[in-house]
Amino acid sequence: MLKLYHAVDTIGRIDNQRIAQWIELLRHRPGDEVFNALVGVFCNTDRPTRCFLDQEYAGRIFLAVKPPCSQDIQSVIKRTLATWDLSIEQLPFYFSDVFGAEAVLKALDALDRVDNSQQEKKAILTFRFWLHARRDN
């Protein structure tokens, strides 16, 4: 993901051609490797001023490649809640596409029952919003 961060730092905007190149490249990589790299962008705390663009790139790639996730959905979502930029709808859409909306909603229900920070609570509500908004369209 160093190339993603470098692109954000040097270009400062979405570059659809670069995204298309990365998508083609990542389709030939092991799914778990791609998943871990992309979800890592959503968990990164080292780039707060660049997180929107970082996550927008990663989100678009997530939806295009749809790498499989062999990890527990609830724990993966939990890892992203504190750092996910709530305007990046691709993250909930990815989980819905890969696991199914009902599985994502069940994971969110379980997460609602544990102690969460205010940011995590807001993220859970927003996750639900994006899932319902997509279903309603």
Please explain how this structure is put together.
- It contains 8 helices and no strands.
- With 137 residues, it is mostly helical.
- The protein has one domain (2-136).
- The longest helix is centred in the last third of the chain and has 19 residues, at 118-136.
- The chain is globular.
Question: How do the strands and helices of this protein lay out in sequence?
Answer:
Blueprint: H1 2-11, H2 16-26, H3 31-43, H4 51-65, H5 73-81, H6 90-99, H7 101-112, H8 118-136
Helix/strand/pairing class, anyone? mainly alpha
Number of domains: 1
Number of helices: 8
What string gives the helices and strands in order? HHHHHHHH
Radius of gyration: 14 Å
- According to DSSP, the number of beta strands is 0
Overall, the morphology is globular
Low-confidence stretches: none
Distance separating the two termini: 32 Å
The helical percent reads over 70%
Oligomer: single chain
> Whole-number average pLDDT?
94
Taken as a percent bin, the fraction of beta residues is under 5%
Characterize the main sheet: none
